[in-house]
Amino acid sequence: MIKSHLPLYPSNTQDSVKICGIKEKSIPISIKSTYPDALDCEEDIEVINMPITSFYSKEPFQPILSDVNSLTTWQLSDDSYMQSLKAKELEYMANPYYLQTMQPHITLNMRMILYDWMMEVCSELTLKRETFHLAINYCDRYLSRNYGVKKEEYQLIGLTCMYLAAKIEEVLPPTLTDWASSADNGYSTCLIIQMEKHLLKNIDFKIFPATPCNWTSWLMSQWDIFIDFHFGCVQGNNLKDLDQYADKRKVKSMFEERMILFKQANQRAYRRFRETMQILDVSLLHPGSIKFPPKYLACGLLYLMISKYFFESNYALLYYNGDSQESDYREKELDESVEADPFRLESTGTVQELYEDFIRAAVGIENIEEIYGSVSFYHPFLEFESSFELPVVCRTQSKSKLESHYEDFLAYQTHNVRNLDFVQSSLKTC
What we know:
It is built from 17 helices and two strands. By secondary structure, it is mostly helical. Strands 1-2 form a two-stranded antiparallel sheet.
């Protein structure tokens, strides 16, 4: 078993992030092990407010052979989409050092401010998250090829990248006038069109990259299938099993907490999805994100988040044995000292092995150590305080329409007002 050299669970101790610049200082940061109760909407799914309940035995539950799927190894049902993503990765990567080598007039802080503004615009215009990620890719690649972009042109470039990305991704993209208005009409429509031509020429008309959003969304879908394949055969780990229980509401809540899923239409899965995607979004403001191929960004982030969610659920899925007497299950008390808790250490290793099997089958990464670089990059982002405000589209479309197209609902871009402060305080600027 490969041992991780990185913490896989939240810590109650305080770390500090050093900031280089005019004066060096340390900012204490503590990880929150519980979510803020931030989904404050009359139409939210009601979930019982109850302590995390876990199901344990001395050893992880081993289902009887007759209950196990005849296939012992999970495989992709179709790898054509994954292969198309892999084929594009290196071709569409930007120069990770373009700010230092190509752009003497553009600073790290200017890049963060522009990209945060672009995210907010995409959110307010009810655009898809992929539109924002496409625009970031275009912008980074353009700046990788054009030396000495002036400060006055920088926002125009970002605006044009969003304009182009929306035409690629959106069914009904905003009009050119809408885009000009989003920048307080600081740029004419003629300037935007002129910049679009220049942009397309400089990125060789290559406008269909495999973005971190593509990879992360696809991996989440495959993870949900993977978890159901390995644990869905146990009684109570499938939605269709829940009808037989008298206290269906309580059992459903425990099921949603236990099954570490991202795209199932329930509140806990939605919170996992939102938190993970917000970390992905805010990480794009950090120049370190450009150094990793999108596949490794997605795999590293998902590993960290899955480890976090297993920890928060007390690894209940690993030890749940399918017993129908829900009220008899006891919650296991975890020691504050990780080193003194063999249960937690063993469970952490099990999750690591489980995820290694997943990425081997899903994307062909044979050794989990390949993603340790991106895991290290994302680890400080566990401190980021997520926002669970519903997307702007909820103000314009009915709940029934959004629920009937849940995958589309998940695709809408959101914006967190804490993005800039977090990245600016954690980034070591020199």
